[in-house]
């Protein structure tokens, strides 16, 4: 067997292993190129080269080439292992592109596992909600940071204080607040009947924003509370909805839209918190 054929076999296997690492993502819109997964695939390819050559030494007669392959594979393995563990080449957008497929795996396993214990089921449900929210937020931040729309600081909760359990229950940490998925039955407690539009973090989840086209009202759920919103002024950045202390702005992505997202939602509190998500905005047919 020729060394060229051996090299092509290792290269093909490396590419196939890289592709296989994406097959356990929950949805295709969660597939992003990942530097870390690339390094992992190359590391596995180097390992395969050593194992396969060791088993097939009798088929390859050049001692120099065999030694060079063993040494080269060991160097590649050590280098890619260092790149994976140090993350020295991974920037903010690259980090998020790697994390989205990772979060997607958590959604897939949490949703499809055969869970019977209600405690475990509750944990799995909370994981699904958290991962979907973070995926939508990372899609938004990838676009922001890639466009160099960076910020110097973000909202920070005040320092912790000594208090009672009642104080802890009554106190909401502003930095952790975000619109929660809201079933239609909850939206109907606020919105009048008629055509509605919704913003979803993912096609499979309940919307985090409901709007009524006729009345201009909107509804979201914040920290377990159903909050009515009124239509604000439409701007070039999209159209907004407001309530005391909060503004929610939806912007269709237009030419930026793709199969991963067609709109973005920015949630802003007067205290200074601002969080953005990329997802899907659709309206009922009239």
From TrEMBL:
Residues 94-153 form the DUF305 domain. InterPro entries: DUF305_CopM-like, Ferritin-like. Pfam families: DUF305 (PF03713). The keyword Lipid metabolism does not apply. The chain crosses the membrane at residues 7-27, 39-58, 65-84. The keyword Transmembrane applies. Keywords: Membrane, Transmembrane, Transmembrane helix. This is DUF305 domain-containing protein. It comes from Primorskyibacter flagellatus.
């Amino acid at each position: 067997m020729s060394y060229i054929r051996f090299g092509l076999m290792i290269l093909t296997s490396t590419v196939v292993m890289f592709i296989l690492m994406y097959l356990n993502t929950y949805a295709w819109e969660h597939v992003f190129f990942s530097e870390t997964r690339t390094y992992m695939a190359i590391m596995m390819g180097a390992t395969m080269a050593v194992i396969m050559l060791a088993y097939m030494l009798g088929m390859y007669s050049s001692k120099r080439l065999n030694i060079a392959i063993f040494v080269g594979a060991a160097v590649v393995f050590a280098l890619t292992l260092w790149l994976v563990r140090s993350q020295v080449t991974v920037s903010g957008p690259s980090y998020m592109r790697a994390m989205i497929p990772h979060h997607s795996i958590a959604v897939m396993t949490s949703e499809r596992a055969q869970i019977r214990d209600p405690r475990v089921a509750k944990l799995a449900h909370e994981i699904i909600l958290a991962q979907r929210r973070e995926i939508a937020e990372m899609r938004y931040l990838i676009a922001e940071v890639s466009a160099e729309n960076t910020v110097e600081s973000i909202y920070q909760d005040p320092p912790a204080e000594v208090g009672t359990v009642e104080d802890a229950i009554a106190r909401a940490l502003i930095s952790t607040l975000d619109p929660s998925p809201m079933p239609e039955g909850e939206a109907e407690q606020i919105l009048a009947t008629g055509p509605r539009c919704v913003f979803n973090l993912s096609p499979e989840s309940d919307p985090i924003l409901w709007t009524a086209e006729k009345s201009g009202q909107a509804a979201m759920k914040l920290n377990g509370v159903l909050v009515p919103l009124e239509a604000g002024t439409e701007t070039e950045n999209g159209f907004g909805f407001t309530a005391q202390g909060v503004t929610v702005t939806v912007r269709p992505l237009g030419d930026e839209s793709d199969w991963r997202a067609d709109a973005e939602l920015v949630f802003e509190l007067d205290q200074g918190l601002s969080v953005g998500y990329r997802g899907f905005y659709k309206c009922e047919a009239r």
